[in-house]
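The pair is quoted verbatim underneath.

:::
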Amino acid sequence: MFVALIAAGAFIKIPIPVVPFTLQYLFTMMAGLLLGGRLAICATGAYLLLGLAGLPIFAQGGGPAYIFQPSFGYLIGFAAGAYVTGVIAGRTERPGYGSLLAANFAGLAIVYLFGMVYYYFMSNFYLNSPIGLWPLFLYCFILAVPGDIALCIVGAILGKRLIPLVKEKERAVYDQT
């Protein structure tokens, strides 16, 4: 289900310069919160594999050549960020808003780290379209992060309500076996 949600999130976008703002991060973050780190990285990894195999499920298409897009690092970051979010949020049975926000912000930091580093190296060394550190920071962080901060808050609110339901279902399934 999360593979489909992440793919759908790629098409819900707000155009901003350089890196489009999409709802992909919300769904990768929710995968981490609800599935835990291991299953979240499986879901985001499956999404990446399907997109690289040619399905047009990334924000700007798909296919193996997509790895040469400067924004591909954010997609890699989604997988790593979902894992980190899931591990941090999964430390307690019923995490509070503070720990969910911390998990979401840690995952977001991972996404931006991967995305910005990849963007810098692809622009400067592959595309021969040099970008300095200030423009990189401006276009790949400052312009994009306010929306993602809002998504972190929304994710914490949703997580606080949905995690107990998911845990209850897991216990019910476990008790039946």
